[in-house]
Amino acid sequence: MSLAWRIARRELRGGLRGFWVFLACLTLGVAAIAAIGTVRGAIEAGLTEQGAVILGGDVEVQLTYRFADPEERAFFEGLGEVSELVDFRSMLAVGDERALTQIKGVDDAYPLYGAVNLTPDMPLSAALAGRNGLPGAVIDPVLLARLGLEVGDRVKLGAKDFIAMAALDRMPDSAGAGFSLGPPTLVSSAALGDTGLLAPGSLFETEYRIKTPEALDLETAKAQAETALEGTGYRWRDRRNGAPGISRFVERLSAFLVLVGLTGLAVGGVGVSAAVRAYLAGKTEVIATLRSLGASGGLVFRVYLLQVGALAALGIAMGLFLGGVLPLVFGPIIEASLPVPVDLALRVRPLAEAALYGALAATLFTLWPLGQSEHIRAAALFRDAQSGLRGWPRSIWIVVCAVVLAALVGSAALLSGLAMLTLWAAGGIMAAFVLLVLAALGVGALARWLAPRMRGFRTLRFALGAIGGPGREAQAVVVSLGLGLSVLAAVGQIDSNLRNAIAGDLPEIAPSYFIVDIQPDQLEPVKASLEARPSVSKIESAPMLRGVITQINGESAMEVAGDHWVVRGDRGVTYADALPDGTMITDGTWWGEGYQGPPQISFAAEEAEELGLKLGDTLTVNVLGRDITAEITSFREVDFSTGGLGFVLSMNKAALEGAPHTHIATIYAEEADEPAILRDLAKAYPNITAIRVRDAIDRVSEVLKGIAAAITYGALATLVTGGIVLIGTAAAGEKARVYEGAVLKTLGASRAAVLGNFALRSALLGLTAGGIALFAGIAAAWAVSVFVMETDFHVAIGSAIAIIAGGILATLATGLMFAWRPLATRPARVLRARE
């Protein structure tokens, strides 16, 4: 090794000529993964360190449909300082204008942590106190603009008037509030008593935030709550995980972005391999000289392994520097674009993960050409020393490559936290890689077959001859560009299908409005008024309660079902006597009209299968603080994609009829009449809340737009890496093109003909890369849409055309970038130099 290092060190004194592409590809790939990991770590640290601020307290206990009784309140106060909040959706009215808002009724202790920022600047207590005998409200600026409100104007909430005292710029606990269909409005909870919005059965939640002493152990407090609040249907959160929904979202999105980064590293690996191959091909004479002086193949391998290893360490170090520093440089932009606190700092784990991925990728893509270098013999000095690397490496290196590949995929699966997604993604990347290599070989063979048959098309014949000739230009171009375009094609197709599913197909089948909090005595009058409208085509209604599934077969539901969404919070529960119209029972039997026996449950079939439920199992559902244990006697088909009424859990009428509850209704109407429907309903029944489905779709579309943008940026980074590989490939082939151009000019070809030859071959390779990438991207997008997102899939023509056009333009640009020197060089000078 000392001899090998001495030779390697002396060769490295000649500079890094030929290794810029190697360094750029490795640096970009490592930097992308390191940056993603750094931002993810910053968000996780922010959520942990600011958990109490995000949550609004050290502990939060949520109750549904009710306020805490004196005993429960006493327990909360025994843990520390308590702030009581009531949270629900309602309609804010100004004249004939109505808008959905998320009401948060707060007490004098709110907020326990942080501060509420208002415009104009004033204490929250002063704003909520109001003036002129009316209570105050602070309203989100978006809602103020939507309703044309100014500070000081009157607004109506339910049956009561409020004064808009200020614009709500920021709430310290907004990040932990989760997804909301309406902008927030803050009022005093004491002012809600005579609004008519908190009638028995109305859907609202109370949140008890507790600021605990530092010495209090949260795990001990949680255990005490399990005893003191047993059977009440409470939900516990504490500062250790103040925003679990955001944590899950960040974890999964960043894991997916890491996979996109690994794809970029795979694209860069093609450039790494090509750079090492080109470098070793240029060192053929040096290697042959070493062999003639008695050097073994193993010594040659070690010499260039040390060189490549040293340069790989340099590339990884530069990537770690960029990936660690860039998030800090753009920290203000990142913090402004995220709804959660971030703690941007250099962290060891994300940098170590990126370094591991970079080292494994560099090893994987350099071992093959290094292994081939062992086959260069001393006789190469007396033959064509520019023939390059040929043959297969020894079997030991093939096995090592397989082991390194397994280590790379295994590391990604282990560290990303989404093992199955990683394995499927790795399989897709390898399948696309193999497909692109086979396509490149196929294009070369086809070009060799077609070239002699294009006698009447000289420029096309020369272009096909160059594509099918010796060298690896076609393979490097098709594979590097194709992988980057494949990721971009998949992202484009998935994004297009999601947008179509939400903004295109759903409004055709979804209702115009969801109406909630309809009191039982209001249901028939509401339905009668709606049925009298010619624009209303259909009305559906059902009793509506909220319940928490606490036990499955007598065991904790969270322990049995894990983190499944059905048991994660409270769910909509309904009841029915006779089998509702359109209900399809897939297994078991309905209890029948007039049933008065023990409680029974009909459960959604698909969700039951995911939870492992079967007929005869028992569920304990806490409704209004009362536990109801019922047997599952049937499964039914529930299609949530229609946007209509759909309940995971339905019970027999006798089990729930006596509980205070409201009704929910869906209205299917012509779009032109929707504003009038909302106006008339709000005037006649100020307590009910109407949720316009098109507005909900817009909110979901906004979220998806942000997700798609993040993923698209990751895909573009992959494409940039592919562009660097293209430039490196074109630069490496410039010398051969100079000679080729000289020969063509000598044979009478004009500059235009030579340029057309270069442009045509680049366009053909780009068309091939774009076509194969489109096929691979559509296949990946179809699998994700159908099997992961469970939506219909249609090929987005616009995105498909853009991918193919992008492939052609990318190769054309890089090909022409290095065409000017071959065009400008005089043939005599080139041909004499080759004698």
From TrEMBL:
Keywords: Cell membrane, Membrane, Transmembrane, Transmembrane helix. Pfam families: FtsX (PF02687). The keyword Transport does not apply. Residues 716-823 form the ABC3 transporter permease C-terminal domain. It is found in: Cell membrane. InterPro entries: ABC3_permease_C (IPR003838), Membrane_comp_ABC_pdt (IPR038766). GO terms for cellular component: plasma membrane. It is a multi-pass membrane protein. Its main location: membrane. The chain crosses the membrane at residues 20-39, 256-280, 312-334, 354-371, 392-415, 421-451, 764-789, 795-820. This is Putative ABC transport system permease protein.
